[in-house]
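Closing statement on the KG4 sub-project.
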Amino acid sequence: MQQVEKDTFILAIESSCDETAAAVVRNGREILSNVIASQIDLHTLYGGVVPEIASRKHIEKINQVIDQAVRQAGMTLQDVDAVAVTYGPGLVGALLVGVSAAKALAFALGKPLVGVHHIEGHICANYLQYPDLEPPFMSLVVSGGHSHLVIVRDYGEYEVIGRTRDDAAGEAFDKVARAIGLGYPGGPKIDQLVAREGNPDAIPFPRASVGGSVYDFSFSGLKSAVLNYLNECKMKGVEVNRADVAASFQKAVTDVLVAHGVRGAKDYGFHKLALAGGVASNTALRRAMKEACEKEDIDFYYPAPILCTDNAAMIGSAGYYEFQKGVRSGWDLNAVPNLKLGER
Ligand code: KG4
Ligand code: ZN
């Protein structure tokens, strides 16, 4: 008699930065609910994420968000097979809220607990967007805290071949946006401004290459070049065209990201490249990467913006594959702010 495979439902929790999120995911691929309580408005007042405020807001929201995720999935807590939670990297106080909630729930329900790496979650957002995508492939993860070029050998098996030496791509977007008075969060604001106006060839900002790994990134020199340019304009009394600065900066970042991503995929012989992380929402980056991949006969994957930003559905997908591999976290699971990809 043919055996019918039972569905696996993962309740996932994410609180590593400024979004309190919970989701229910079926078999690692299908989103049954994806609830995100964003704190962006709160942090905008201060021009960036204030860790203490983030932690406090997570505490206020977490139970409500979990409850909503389970209800929207049309389930009860008893119906889930395991609880997955981001335990690093991220802000320690913020992570602790999600980890504590997940531990309490899993313990009370008698369900397994699975700790998930935040970057693994970002990569797995692609599995939700593309139900047929299978490893191996190359992934470029670009977020507020990370710029990683990663070989995805198999589910849960990663090798980082390129990383940023200084600022992450999203961090550079946020800092430049602040310098030209666009405010927080900078990435989407620069993206929108450039979509309306701005000449990407107006100012020749540097495309940094660093010694060591050819796949590594460095964005602090570019950030300094933008700040120097703004200072020079101020000293000379020249009016700054903010849209041109934003467009030229964005082009400098995307040129490097596209070049490294495509080079990595080609060098290692991968015909699939998946973009991930908050910056993966960037319109110019998606367009440029798509074009470059088409030229090189590489299939290009990129999640919808709601799956690029921090969310719990991506943690539910990653959690499912870790769960299937037999990964179980103990009740001593702790937040690890600087957790490395591939470590446990
Ligand atoms: O992945 P994410 O939501 O959080 C982290 O794990 O860091 O990424 C947030 C980062 C922020 O720096 C934000 O400015 C950037 O992603 N970002 C963008 C865009 N949307 C978000 N950067 C460029 N263009 C965008 N459209
Ligand atoms: Zn993230």
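The longest strand covers residues 30-38. With this model delivered, the sub-project is considered complete and its resources will be redirected to Aim 3.
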